[in-house]
Structures are given as C-alpha cells and as structure tokens.
Amino acid sequence: MSTPTVKLSSGHAMPLVGFGLWKVNNDTCADQVYNAIKAGYRLFDGACDYGNEKECGEGVARAIKDGLVKRSDLFITSKLWNSFHDADKVEPICKKQLADWQLDYFDLYLIHFPIALTYVDPWENEGGKDITFGTATIQETWQAFEKLQEAGLAKSIGISNFSVQLIMDLLRYAKIKPAALQIEHHPYLQQAGLIKFAKEQGIAITAYSSFGPASFIELDVKEAQGAGPLLESNDIKKIAEKHGKTPAQILLRWSTQRDIAVIPKSNDPTRLAQNLDVGSGFELDKGDLEYIGGLDRHLRFNDPVNYGMNIPIFV
C-alpha cells in the first residue's frame, strides 16, 4: 500500500501516515517496528525522551536485513530533548541517537520542546534529578541544528510544540527554515491559527495525539479524565458508519485530508492496516468537517503543567 506524502521545504517527501513510538514498551518495541514495516509503514516518529530508540533501531535493522525495505524507503524522525539545547551538546547527542537507531542520518530531526534545561549526561540515570533551566537560546539551538543538516546528519530539521510567536522569532534568524512543526492536534485542540500561520510559511504539520484524551487517561492527566473519549463519540461513530470506516479512521482522515501528517500506533494487525489506510481513499464531506470543527474545546493534554511541572509554556 502506497502512502501519500507531503513535500517538505527541504525538498524531501514525508509520508502523511506514520507510526508513533511514544509509550511503546522496550520489550515489544523492536517487534512492533518490524511488524509495522511489514504492514507498510515507512514513517517512524521517535524521540530521545521516549527511551526506546535502541529497540527501534533493532526493529529497523532486522527489517532491512530481511529485505523488507531499504534504508532509503524509510522516513525516520527523532527529537532533541530539553537537556541538550546547548550548541556544543546538539551534535553529540544526535550522533548518539543515530547510533542507537543504527543509522547514518535522520530524515527529520526536531527540537522536542522550546525548553532549555541544564545538561545531563545521557549515559547517566536522570531519575530523581530536579528540573533546572538552562541558558541556551532557541537561536543557539537552531543554529546548531542547521549545522546538523549541512553535515548530512539530518536531511530535514524542524520544531515541535512551538507557538506562533516563537516561530516568528525563529524565522528572523534562521538560514534554514523549519521543514516541519509537530503539535498536539485533535478535535478538542485544533490550533487553527497556528496551523494556518505555519502552512503560510511553508512549514508542514504533523499531528500527535490524534485520538485526543486516549493516550493521557492512563497518565492520570486530569483534563483527559474529564474529556469525553473521541473514539466513543456517538457523532464520530455516525460519520464512521456513513463512510464504512472506524472512528479512528475518521479522526485520522480529518487531519490527512487537510495535509496534516498523523502518527498513530497500534500492535493489532487489523488496526495497523486501518490506520495506514487514511492517507486517501475516502473523503469526509463538508458537513463532516464542519461538525468535527465544532468540537474544539481548546483542551490541551500534553502540557508540562499537567504533569506537575511549573513550566507554563502554552499560557
């Protein structure tokens, strides 16, 4: 199954549907990546903070060894964690992450959050350490990112969890424009103004947490506990029945139909195939889009404040 792509400003094509690696357990991760490649996934979205990049690399290496794909068939995204924003720390941690993945380059490398924390040796255990803010500016970090792209360690570079104001500032000094912006995006948090601005600047959008509160209930995020599950919404179910699709497919197609990439995950072979089949093949009509558009509650789940950290970056 061929997945539609979106053209990045760097000139590279990114699949519209990928496999997200957040909260994928270490003991099953390699197999999940391998099976997702076997099912047809080519975009994999990881991060230093997820703690499973070594296992992700094992799954990719096995798939390449078994002839399922070539490296050039895959689009691998990873992210810089907050502890490595200092200019002299960016390249070393990127190279460590590449080694964990058993790769020579990332297709896309993102600044995970616009938060600089003090450096912590990646070979140390970070458990129990207090959060201490660092002094690195976004400009310092971005200029180090530009060097990664120039050196071929990342084919494209981008940002995640940035506001319009921060993007405006970054664009003033960036020699290389961010190719992509990854944000929390679902019917309860639509961020229409941010998406419109980014697209006007030629920055592609990737949505995470497309199913809204589903990923955050088990994390005891209060806002997720009080929100109605999108996958169980009767109105979403009605739209799904009309199109002969699942509620999950409707929520994912709502994004991809507007050229917003999605990165769901599943360990179920049936759902793996269903999630991948949302890049094209069916269209939501104007009424469907207007209804889903009316669900916006400006309800954000992935906020440091929700985890008890006094880092109100989204205020």
TrEMBL record:
CDD domains: AKR_AKR2D1 (cd19115). The keyword NAD applies. It catalyses: xylitol + NADP(+) = D-xylose + NADPH + H(+); xylitol + NAD(+) = D-xylose + NADH + H(+). Keywords: Carbohydrate metabolism, NAD, Oxidoreductase, Xylose metabolism. The active site is at residue 50. The keyword Oxidoreductase applies. Pathway: Carbohydrate metabolism; D-xylose degradation. Pfam families: Aldo_ket_red. The record marks 79 as: Lowers pKa of active site Tyr. Its EC number is 1.1.1.307. GO terms for biological process: D-xylose catabolic process. Catalyzes the initial reaction in the xylose utilization pathway by reducing D-xylose into xylitol. Xylose is a major component of hemicelluloses such as xylan. Most fungi utilize D-xylose via three enzymatic reactions, xylose reductase (XR), xylitol dehydrogenase (XDH), and xylulokinase, to form xylulose 5-phosphate, which enters pentose phosphate pathway. This is D-xylose reductase [NAD(P)H]. It comes from Cyphellophora attinorum.
